Amino acid sequence: xxxxxxxxxxxxxxxxxxxxxxxxxxxxxxxxxxxxxxxxxxxxxxxxxxxxxxxxxxxxxxxxxxxxxxxxxxxxxxxxxxxxxxxxxxxxxxxxxxxxxxxxxxxxxxxxxxxxxxxxxxxxxxxxxxxxxxxxxxxxxxxxxxxxxxxxxxxxxxxxxxxxxxxxxxxxxxxxxxxxxxxxxxxxxxxxxxxxxxxxxxxxxxxxxxxxxxxxxxxxxxxxxxxxxxxxxxxxxxxxxxxxxxxxxxxxxxxxxxxxxxxxxxxxxxxxxxxxxxxxxxxxxxxxxxxxxxxxx
Amino acid sequence: xxxxxxxxxxxxxxxxxxxxxxxxxxxxxxxxxxxxxxxxxxxxxxxxxxxxxxxxxxxxxxxxxxxxxxxxxxxxxxxxxxxxxxxxxxxxxxxxxxxxxxxxxxxxxxxxxxxxxxxxxxxxxxxxxxxxxxxxxxxxxxxxxxxxxxxxxxxxxxxxxxxxxxxxxxxxxxxxxxxxxxxxxxxxxxxxxxxxxxxxxxxxxxxxxxxxxxxxxxxxxxxxxxxxxxxxxxxxxxxxxxxxxxxxxxxxxxxxxxxxxxxxxxxxxxxxxxxxxxxxxxxxxxxxxxxxxxxxxxxxxxxxxx
Lengths: 297, 306
Fold this sequence. Notes:
The complex is a heterodimer.
Chain A: H1 2-9, H2 14-19, H3 25-35, H4 41-53, H5 67-102, H6 107-121, H7 124-138, H8 154-189, H9 191-198, H10 203-240, H11 246-255, H12 259-287, H13 289-296
Chain B: H1 4-12, H2 19-39, H3 41-63, H4 73-76, H5 99-135, H6 137-151, H7 155-166, H8 170-196, H9 200-207, H10 212-220, H11 225-248, H12 260-267, H13 277-303
Helix pairs in contact in B: 1-2, 3-5, 3-13, 5-6, 5-8, 5-11, 5-13, 6-8, 7-8, 8-11, 9-10, 11-12, 11-13, 12-13
């Protein structure tokens, strides 16, 4: 509903936007008639909701194709990119957070904390620019475009996706590392950690069996909430690396005032975000006996 | 001898007896905090970098060696895409404009937009948080439920759609970022107010029959200024992030303004052809600005004890 309202407030004449400013007014009127954009807002809304319930997302105005045909491949491409970014960032960020926590207040903690925070605060496209200039231009080791040639194998695709994924990694790193750090510090201070130390367990065992197990729970939940922010980054990254994902699709849809496409992509982004949050909740309760048992009682 | 932090807490809770003594203690606590802040290396580094950009934003014309907008374009087209040299330390762009001058000129755009947006967001968020936290109950639900829903949509995506509807301009950019940030700040303020409203001084004010707005703004607000100040600097960093990103996408400042995000948007395509300087220097400028804001935030939050 909110999505629909926001998209409908977009000013301008759809037919005019597609055909350009010099098109004949009669052609514009005809196109509007054909697309149904000259009907009232209420009728269009009912039509849209009805379509979604039947599993039909409607047709794109600008591309003149069913939205489904555009959205699914784009979502798959974005999923590949996001997956690669997460596969890199999650272990690295957790390691960074734990290392920082173990040296709390010391130099390496300050470096990781401030460095991570700064990395997170620098916009994705700025990271992208640095990465392109260094790796694609000066060192000439990685391709600038993220779009691998058709039929490329998994490894080739990953090579093409490495630079855009790295740009996302920098922005995601700080937040996840900060959560891992906070969780580890809390677990280190807990009574069970002190008990484990006092009964003479070696430091490694205490860390592995008692501290990490407890400290990583909140971190996992945070990783899922980052999916929402990831989409904001995808728009920029996919644009700059010329990659046909959901973010680039949304950008093109917004530029062409392609309402059905805007609505569907934003709706889809919302759904993916909700699913990620839900998955995090389930994972969290599976991993945390306290929550699981509280439900069964 | 108590530490400045402890004394500051005592003072804030209003537990130091006679008013005159209390006022003096507040002044001392403030001065000690300030001294602590000036001893923090990260804070000083942050303030220095930020100061340089602020200076460029105010006195840009005096510092810049050339006109950032190029002046006589026809005459300068012969200078286009020159690599960095002594006469053009950052090189020239595809229209022959001096990149160094454009980077200096761009400071004004971002340092107008980001602080105003963060200020707007903080002001709106503070009011939301005070009202929700002080009244609890229905007002709380009425404010916090939509806030939760709002936070579920990625800000850049929301900004993109809303700015398309409103039309791209610098002023709408400020309003949109401010409104997007208000709920997040509101949440922080609400949490602080919830802890504060149970304290004796609020009860005392209530027993004196003070009106709710007076209690909220004159009694509670001065006591929650620390988290609000920290939140403001955090948001300032994110405002730079969001404003630069939306400008890069073409939904913020419009050409031919030398805004950094816009410069990168206009030049990144030619990196492939080997022309890296028109893109790299504005990118470095954005990076140094957000890092400086982060260092300031880090220093402040340490001294204010959060």
